Amino acid sequence: MFTETQILEHLNREHRSGFHDMVWFRDGGSLSYLIRSGDQRYFLKIIRPQMLETAIQSIGIHLYLRRHQFPVPAIIPGRTGSPYSIAETAQGRYLFVVYEYLEGAEPDIHQHAESIGSLTGVFHALMQGYSGPLTERGKDFFLDRYLGILKKKNYPEPKWQAYANYGNELWARVKHLPYGYCHGDLNRGNLLQTASGDIYLLDLDTSCRSFPLYDIALVCNCTDYFRFEEKDYAETRDILERFLSGYTQHREISARMRAAIFDLIALMHYQLQATIIEIYGLDCVDERFVDDQLEWLQKWQKASRG
């Protein structure tokens, strides 16, 4: 990947700010760092080649939202005025984006479900007016990628068939849902609440044209990704109702659409598993891990039917 020296050298070629210090923050698909120029802190994201296309599209979305005074952090342009820079490597092209640093923390959905719902409703309504390019995400992205990966891993056929049967059942129920702008990764870690109570939206680099309801599914999901508990299903249902009381002030949601949100939470497991394996390689998860995810889905299926 990159050493700290290589990252700072790249930044200082592309920016006038004189960056001199950096601290690793997280690897959430993209690499994130806190960086300094003098006493000023900034936030750096380095997006991997697998996500380059949607990440570049997301910059246009970010600037669109800023123009409409929607709460997203400011992007710090480089020497040429570009909102991003690219580093060419043997592994591919990496996208560098520098943002203003905002002090804050992930908002508590239990305290702020209605406010987060209202913010998301405003966000989706505003994005109806966005005319820039968006990558389309459909059945291949949400379901078929993962089934294909399991074939490559020689996952046992009876268990593969169980994944396929439930996945196709889920897709049959969601495939006719409204399409439109979708953030694509609207988990609560991509929201930030400042000390003043303002909530900001982060990480637009998975933006796509897909199901807007998928954003609602992710942000309201109160389940543990690795361990299913019935109480988490009930908690998700309760948070969703409170979230929608804010969301529906700006966007309408039918009864059929409400029900489909639970199917989209299940499809998230197919989608996220595929994305993780595409980034980190076929051997990053073993058969036991894949079995545990199948068990999670089977328990979810039972809870949703009850």
Low-confidence stretches: none
Strand content: 15-25%
Q: What is Rg?
A: 20 Å
Q: Tell me the number of helical segments per DSSP (H or I, 4 or more residues long).
A: 9
Provide the domain count. Answer: 2
Gross morphology is globular
From the helix content, strand content and strand pairing, which structural class follows? alpha+beta
Spatial ordering of strands, largest sheet: 1-2-3-5-4
Say what oligomer this is: single chain
CATH class of the largest domain: Alpha Beta
Reported by name, the CATH topology of the largest domain is Aminoglycoside 3'-phosphotransferase, Chain: A, domain 2
Range of helix content: 40-55%
Instruction: Please identify which CATH superfamily of the largest domain we are dealing with.
Output: Aminoglycoside phosphotransferase (APH), C-terminal lobe
What is the correct CATH architecture of the largest domain?
Alpha-Beta Complex
**Ends apart, CA distance between termini:** 47 Å
Number of strands: 9
> Element order, helices and strands?
HEEEHEEHHHEEEEHHHH
Integer average pLDDT: 96
Q: Please give the largest β-sheet.
A: 5 strands, antiparallel
